[in-house]
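Issue 218. Parser rejects a valid record. Input:
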Amino acid sequence: MNYATQTSQAVKPQVSTARKIAAGSIGNAVEWFDWTIYASFAVFFSTQFFPKTDETASLLATFAIFAVGFFMRPIGGWALGIYSDRYGRKSALGVTIMLMAGGSLMIGITPTYEQIGLLAPFLLVIARLMQGLSLGGEYASASTYLAELAPDHRRGFFSSFVFFSSAAGILTASAIGWALTTLLTDEQMREFGWRIPFLLGALGGIAGIWLRMSVPEAEASTPQPPNKVEKQPLRTLLRDYPRETLRIVGFSILSTFAFYLFVIYIPTYAIRALHVASSTAFAANTVAMVAFMLVHPLFGMLSDKFGRKPQLIAFALGYLLFFYPIITNMQPTFSSILMVELFGLLLYALYTSIAPAIMSEQFPSSVRAVGIGAPYNLMVALLGGTTPYLLTWLQSHGQESWFFYYVLAGAALTLLTFIKMPETAGKSLK
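Output the parser choked on:
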């Protein structure tokens, strides 16, 4: 019996498009909830994994582990991208969510430094390595799954649910931070409150696994027959698609900065540098994340109608012109923090709503997941993983403005990439 016959005999139940979109996106929400709570709650649990004698040193060490987790993302993007291209998106998505939920459970139950000494930060590192591997494969597999599921004329709309769900997961993390910091004192948050979101994330992973396993593959991503498997996908990528690979690098520079500044770092920056109450910082972040999430389907539909490039150019140009004056004039009030967050996040949504579509449109199915996952996660590791650490270090020396110039240089490079790329809206996947 040949491969085609085996495949044709595998009768699969009919599943609604809405449920398929949910499978590609709800599990993604769980992934991003688990990933985000580490940075969001680091200010509370850093002294639980390291000595309490120097809070700044403990926070820097905690963010250093945050960066270490990022350097597993290119490995995840490469290994799980190849796995996804060979064995299908559904199988890869199941693996990623198990790794992420397992890492959250490990962090949530690990004893403190005072209880087990150096074993505590060691276990924290292992958990973050698992989560970095997971997230490296998650983005590429979820992006390709939804892009391959969509009709050509609606790919922007379908793909918008990747970051819509990411925003939902991040929003949930922020909302839980808001609730916990309102209900618990700072001392209670440091003693036990920080464990709650990690345990919730582990439980959410169970639901995500069930949903992902209950839907079939997109037709374009069914497991490949042996004679069609790319034996050396990275070499194929660099040899046959060097320009497309460099585009992914260019796309990822400003988007990485935007994510970790406006989604992750602003609440911590407001608490530490502007001495804003924790509940106020999380509240502003939560409200801004609601707006960020809700505009994604709209921006996805607009790109299907008017093209991808106008939105992308507006995103990069807006940061290049307005980022520095806006962020350097943020005041220690709810309204000021909210306005800064809305500026960063709504411009960022012009990109994130269609990022899975424009990345998927660069490569054929045989190397699509690894083509997205490897270069994208490499840039995220190099730039995003070091952002919280670098900002915290510069802030401790009163020199955070140097990082803002770094962001402007990234905005210029990404803008150039968008200007030079061809329009891909409405075209069939390769």
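Fixed in the parser; the record now loads. Residues 1-12 have pLDDT under 50 and may be disordered.
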